[in-house]
Amino acid sequence: MLITCPYCGPRDVSEYTYQGDGNRTRPDPASTDQEVWNAYVYDRLNPAGEHHEIWQHSGGCRAHLAVTRNTLTHVVSSVSFARDAGHKKSDSRRKTGAKA
Questions:
Q1: Helix, strand or coil for residue 3?
Q2: Which of 7, 55, 68, 86 is geometrically suited to a Cys-Cys bond with 61, CB 3.0 to 4.6 A?
Q3: Pick from 92, 94, 80: which is nearest to 22 by CA?
Q4: pLDDT tens for residues 76-92?
Q5: Are 55 and 67 in contact (CB under 8 A)?
Q6: What's the predicted TM-score (pTM) here?
Q7: Burial, 61: exposed, middle or buried (Cβ in 10 Å; 0-12, 13-18, 19+)?
Q8: Do 31 and 74 form a contact (C-beta atoms < 8 A)?
Q9: Is 78:68 a contact under the CB 8 Å cutoff?
Q10: Is the per-residue pLDDT at 93 higher than 70?
Q11: CA-to-CA dists, residue 86 to 10, 20, 68, 81, angstroms
Q12: Measuring CA to CA, which residue among 74, 97, 79 is closest to residue 9?
């Protein structure tokens, strides 16, 4: 399977590390709801077909990528930087910690 890194171009999957499901939303870090955290950590879907995933180009530029892959055929239909894929939580943390 080949994944096309936006920086490095097409590379074999052996250069990448799977980071997890790209559809999941992390609970509020201040939350003490044990059921919500258990679901986030342990519950996983096993979809057949198109699936959004996060991969890191660990054997190359180390960028985190949002990959859309078909789990039946392993055809990768899109790759973009994870920071550009609508992950707003990291943006809000960056703004909160900044001092003017």
A1: strand
A2: 7
A3: 80
A4: 999 999 998 764 433 33
A5: yes
A6: 0.74
A7: middle
A8: no
A9: yes
A10: no
A11: 23, 16, 14, 10
A12: 79
51: enclosing H helix or E strand: strand 50-56
Positive or negative: CA dihedral 7, 9, 10, 11: negative
Quote the tokens at residue 23: 């559809």
**pLDDT tens-digit readout, 2-41:** 999 999 999 999 999 999 888 888 899 999 999 999 998 8
**In the structure encoding, which two tokens stand for residue 61, read together?**
């530029």
| Domains of the chain, CATH where assigned | 2-97 (3.30.2270.10)
> What's the token pair of residue 95?
């703004």
d(CA 73, CA 78): 14
